[in-house]
Design brief:
Length: about 190
């Protein structure tokens, strides 16, 4: 009887160790030259249980400029995430699109400046939504300037109004020159 109990204990321990070894975090690297392709790939991976972790853009060893996103799949992770990717060379357009996404329950997750195939640059923002979670709506405010001193003043005014910083990029604007782009947000007061 003791041998049978010891055998059952060992088999149980082995099963537990094997389960722990299987329950590891998986990663997926997505890289593309087209921002529209990135949104499609983000959502395809989300359908397989992956969640967005970060984004970067620039010259890769594959030749040319690419948007690169990292996604992870954690067995303890809950959620059925959906993604939208906003890409524009005009900050006014980005402000409008950010707010529309915020009104629909999407939350900011990352941003990057990406060189387009036409030689220009776009600000790219990735937003996430879990359709099964309670919706938290945000009011987004985007600031864009060529002067850091101006940005300092605008961010402090936004902070006084309850906005929190979420991301920053520097890149060329549609009209030329470098532009500092900062995105802030605050929760809507009444839900």
């Amino acid at each position: 009887m003791k041998k049978l109990l010891m055998l059952c204990f060992c088999v149980g321990l082995l099963c537990a160790l094997q389960t722990a070894a299987v329950a590891q975090i998986k990663y997926k690297v997505l890289a593309t030259k087209k921002t529209s392709t990135m949104q499609k790939e983000l959502n395809e991976m989300a359908d397989q249980g992956y969640r967005f972790q970060g984004v970067s853009g620039g010259e890769t060893s594959f030749g040319g400029s690419e948007v690169v996103s990292i996604m992870s799949k954690d067995p303890d992770q809950k959620g059925n995430f959906k993604y939208i990717l906003l890409a524009t060379s005009r900050t006014g357009t980005m402000q409008k699109e950010l707010q529309e996404a915020g009104d629909n329950g999407y939350e900011y997750r990352g941003q990057v400046v990406f060189k387009t195939t036409f030689g220009g640059e776009e600000v790219v923002a990735i937003l996430e939504k879990d359709p099964n979670a309670p919706i938290i709506k945000y009011e987004y405010k985007l600031f864009a300037t060529k002067k850091t001193g101006t940005m300092d003043k605008e961010l402090n005014e936004a902070g006084d109004a309850g906005y929190s910083y979420v991301g920053v990029t520097v890149g060329k604007t549609a009209i030329g020159g470098n532009e500092l782009v900062v995105i802030t947000r605050k929760k809507y007061k009444s839900m």
